[in-house]
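Technical annex B. To support the medicinal chemistry partners, we prepared a structural model of the target in complex with flavin-adenine dinucleotide, based solely on the information shown next.
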Amino acid sequence: MTSQVLVAGAGPTGLTLAIDLARRGVDVRIVERATEFCAGSRGDGIQPRTLEVFEDLGVLDAIHAAGIPVPLTRVFLDGNVVTERRMSELREPTPAVPYPNPWMLGQSDTEAILRARLAEFGVRVELSTALVTFTHDADGVTATLAGPGGAETVRADYLVGADGGRSTVRKTLGIAFEGSTDDSIRMLLGDVPVDALDHGYGYWFADAHEPMHGISLTPLAGRNLFQFATPLGQDAEPTRAVLQDSLDRVSGRTDLIVGEPEWSTVWRPNIRLAQRFRVGRVFLAGDAAHAHPPTGGQGMNTGIQDAYNLGWKLAAALGGDTSAPDTYESERRAVAARILGLSSALLDKHVSGAEDAMDRGEDTHQLTLTYRTPDATGTLVAGDRAPDAPLRRADGSTVRLFELFRGPHATLLNFGAEADSAAGPEDTGTQAYSLVGPETPPRDGQLVAIGSHAFTEYAADAGTRVLVRPDGYLAWRNDG
Ligand SMILES: Cc1cc2nc3c(=O)[nH]c(=O)nc-3n(C[C@H](O)[C@H](O)[C@H](O)COP(=O)(O)OP(=O)(O)OC[C@H]3O[C@@H](n4cnc5c(N)ncnc54)[C@H](O)[C@@H]3O)c2cc1C
């Protein structure tokens, strides 16, 4: 059996990639070693940039319907409420940033939504099917799968290892996973019912003399459960009783009865970056390529962005532009290194008990990530995220830039009255538009910028042209 792309691993990274490929008509197969889908909430914070990706992939409405905004956290010290705060302050949407706030949804629910979207393209995750080994050559990959029907040899043009931190793909390629595991820290994490607590809030319970070392409980959308995180002593067993004891001690209460965890895991800081993200026709994405601490809520989001960066490039390669994926490693490895720095710094703050340890900072939203070259200056240059903006059509109806970007195509924006909307790049998949400033009467087919903000200020500059990549970053900008 042959396919164009074989994806190993059906976590958020593999699912995003499979959707992005399937919507481009690529023949994709996605295999998952587990016998059933993981029920744990794990990455429950969806960052603003990921919400933009989800809008493009057609799952944002479902994500919004299933999730909740970041809740207020009630901070208890020695059993008394001392304050209420949010992990990140709520912001108002702007024309350029339609989704300025993270959105909360347990990872298992996000994955279910992604699987449902993938199924709309006729692709289903093959459970109980592990990638065992593979060889690769100049033309493709030959992989051995172990599935319910026994061993199977498959051929694919490309293989993507989205198979998590213990990645078979990474190990088979012999790629170093550089970094460290800190055995001195153990955390117990999981999903539990705590009936005595109002599910509309998050909670932080700690001793007043050690306010930053406590237990967090975050409500899980659509479930009567909280995601908890508590330090676990070196010899302590990861049991409900241990969690109950810790909660009794730091809360000073006896009415907070913890139910049996629906899912739990013991976590140690494991902070690593793969030395390479690609060897020939084999790629690494998500946790297979970078392992993050959960501080800052970056792991799942970074994997989804890897997939979104790679999908259109693999499709372009299958269409004949074989150099298209060449930028994947340089772009995404640099981003992963930066994000690891960010989440590690937040972890250090937690461990040291810094007072601002809960402030995640705006960079965790991943809106400021850019693929620009280090020497680039100015705003909105090649590599930067293309912002959203409202526009008006000649018939008076409105449309957002993100709606023009939506879909698998690249988008050419011709700014100014003189621009020729028909002048697009050679690539036939590109959609071209002509935009003018609010003061300029539009000609037929032109779009008028509403208001003045980042991108639409260009509309006054006759002749400026910008090519927006399918993943929403500027490929180039020519000033008129
Ligand atoms: C408690 C906790 C809290 C977290 N909180 C956050 C957060 O708030 N925000 C955030 O962004 N991230 C968070 N993360 C991290 C996030 O869960 C991971 O970064 C994310 O799951 C990575 O997605 P992935 O698809 O790359 O890998 P995974 O989710 O690990 O998926 C890999 C899949 O590959 C499968 N697989 C493995 N080997 C094979 C094989 N040989 N063949 C076939 N299939 C295979 C595995 O079974 C698995 O299903 C948290 C993690 C934990 C544990």
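Notes passed to the chemistry partners:
The mean pLDDT is 91.
The pocket of flavin-adenine dinucleotide is lined by residues 8-14, 31-34, 42-45, 107, 130-131, 162-164, 168, 189, 265, 267, 286-287, 294, 297-301, 303 (CB under 6 Å).
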